[in-house]
Amino acid sequence: MPKLQIRNLWYLVLIFLLSINLVNALTINEINYNPEGDDNNHEYIELSLEEPLNLTNYTIQDLSSQDSLTLLQYIPESNYALIVEEGFDYTNLNCSIYSVGATIGNNLNNDEDFILIKNLESTILDAIHYFSSWGGNNNGYSICKIPDKNGLWQECGKTPCLANSQISAIDYNIIINEFLPDPEGNDSSIMPEGEFIELYNKEDYDIDLEGFYFKDQANHKLIISDTTTLDSQKIKEDSYLVIYANGLYGFLNNEGLEKIQFFDSNDNLIDEVSYSGSEEGVSWSLIEEVWQESKPSPNEDNPLPETVNPAKIKIEQIYLGSDDKAKFGDLITLKLLINKGNSTKESVQLYIQDKNNEKISKTTKTNIIKKYTDYLITLPIQIIPNCNSKIPDGKYEIIAEGLDLEESEKIEISGNNPDLCEEVKQKCPSLECEKTESATLNVQSENLLNPISSETTGKLIFESKEIKTKRMAIYFFSLLLVLVIIQKSFETWKK
Predict the structure, then answer these.
(1) What architecture does CATH give domain 173-307?
(2) 3-class state of residue 119 by DSSP
(3) pLDDT in tens, 257-314
(4) In 3-state terms, what secondary structure has residue 202?
(5) Nearest to 272 by CA among 256, 294, 291, 249
(6) What pairs with residue 118 in β-bridges?
(7) Does this model's pTM top 0.90?
(8) Are 364 and 346 in contact (CB under 8 A)?
(9) 168-172, 242-246, 297-301, 308-312: which range is least confident on average?
(10) CA separation (Å) from 358 to 333, 351, 352, 413, 446?
(11) Rounded to the nearest 5°, which phi and psi values hold at 468?
């Protein structure tokens, strides 16, 4: 049996025998056994402490040798301690630091190694036998004990003096799922208003994202912390986490090309997305692997493809007046519920038509500007007068159309509004008076009544007040023009 295998076997037996008295005052939490480049002065072992503890003169041991710990920096408020080599740069690390001289043991082996931590009484506090197959082998990562995965050891981002709840960037299964670049109102509003980015965790365990961050194309940095999340920086398994810009001015552009990049706390790129332009109040959402504009849905599933464009037009109520009936010539009103959804169109129009699709009303139009907003509006429709009773009483269809949608509802129209028609008598030869058909007021394509024809004869006819007003306006204008000419002529004569 090879010598190394024999030694490994003895160490396993030793650990088993001593594990009966194993004290859990501390645990080995992270090992950086083969840093990228030169290992010298870069290897470290992180310990997690149950309570503040001075480890001076404690012993660390590997397969070849053992060393005593010498205190370099003591931070009793921290629950972590770092065992490092001589010359290790621990600037800005907020935990207790211990040195073991030039190397940890006989250097930490890159293939596999044993590590034991013993107290002043030589009691084993923790032990680990690691292998390069776990990861962290000359690739910029460590191996960590992941508490959210029942203490499983695996490759992780380097987190000296910090909690280990994340795996290596290449294995992160967290994606950017939705973002809102141009919220309604002020983009820099305080959360839960303003711009946001939503992440989705596809893993089956929770991950602490404190210190992770986003960058936009202008290198603005949005850090995940308790000031940018509502409840926690931890993203639950199979769940969402919304990160708010929370007043960070100009983070996401509303116009032109923009890029969002998502990094872990060690500057490893996890995910990124680019987009071009945005509309106020409209999110970009990842729907069946395709980025689409949709209604904002923070902390919720993104809408299904068939509901991405929830444009709707609905006739809520028809107001027919006190008698609850409609007459020709009436001005009626409708209450409509309209939502533009994701439509690029804006115009909605109302009119009434007969069974031959001929309009018997004027057309009322309105524009809907904002997407994904419910509008409850009341609009009028003017039914044309039926002064000569040429249009039959009966059921007619109100049409509300636009946004590539159409809604309709039938109403009964009977009788005529007497206030809109006036009797007009004209003298004429008796033979001409029999030509009654020429006096009919036809309904034109624009739903306007034609003026009375010059062939109209002396029989009793009806003329709408609208037509009469237009006719009288022409007479008034002609009279005014004559008076102006007379005045100008008088002024010329005086000169």
Answers:
(1) Sandwich (2.60)
(2) coil
(3) 889 999 987 778 889 999 887 888 888 999 888 888 888 889 998 877 655 567 888 8
(4) coil
(5) 291
(6) 59, 124
(7) no
(8) no
(9) 168-172
(10) 20, 10, 8, 15, 10
(11) -60, -40
Cα–Cα distance for residue pair 234/185, rounded to 1 Å: 29
Q: 390-404, pLDDT tens digit by residue?
A: 888 889 999 999 888
Strand 234-235 and strand 207-208: pairing? antiparallel
Half-sphere exposure of 74 (CA within 13 A, CB side): 9
Reply yes or no on whether the pLDDT at 448 is more than 50.
no
The DSSP symbol for 53 reads -
Tokens 């596999």 appear where?
112
Helix H or strand E encompassing 318: strand 312-319
Distance CA 315, CA 334 (A): 7
Do the two domains 3-169 and 173-307 of this chain adopt the same fold? yes
Q: Is 132 helix (H, G, I), strand (E, B) or coil?
A: helix
Sign of CA dihedral 42, 45, 48, 54: negative
Let me know: does 319 contact 377? Beta carbons within 8 Å: no
Give the number of other CB atoms < 10 A from CB of residue 268.
Answer: 18
| Fold adopted by 3-169 | Immunoglobulin-like (2.60.40)
Contacts of 289 (CB under 8 A, 6+ apart): none
Handedness of CA 61, 62, 66, 70 (dihedral sign): negative
**Half-sphere CA count of 233, side-chain side, radius 13 A:** 17
CA pair distance 411, 354, nearest whole angstrom: 11
142 or 473, greater pLDDT: 142
Among 80, 251, 240, which Cα is nearest to 163's?
A: 80
- Where in the chain are the domains? 3-169, 173-307, 309-495
Strands 112-118 and 59-61: antiparallel
Q: Which two tokens stand for residue 232?
A: 């926690």
Cα separation, 175 vs 268, whole angstroms = 14
Q: Is 70 helix (H, G, I), strand (E, B) or coil?
A: strand
The DSSP line for 352-377 is EE-TTS-B-BPPEEEE--STT-EEEE
CATH number belonging to domain 309-495: 2.60.40.2550
Beta-bridge mates of residue 242? 198
Burial group, residue 421, by CB count within 10 angstroms (0-12, 13-18, 19+): buried
How far is the C-alpha of 331 from the C-alpha of 352, rounded, in Å? 12
Residues, the chain: 495
How many other β-carbons are positioned within 10 Å of the β-carbon of residue 397? 15
Backbone phi and psi for residue 315, each to the nearest 5 degrees, phi listed first: -80, 110
| Burial (0-12, 13-18, 19+ Cβ within 10 Å), 475 | exposed
Q: At a CB cut-off of 8 Å and minimum separation 6, what does 23 contact?
A: 119, 123, 124, 125
**Whether residue 440 has pLDDT greater than 50:** no
Residue 434, pLDDT > 50, answer no
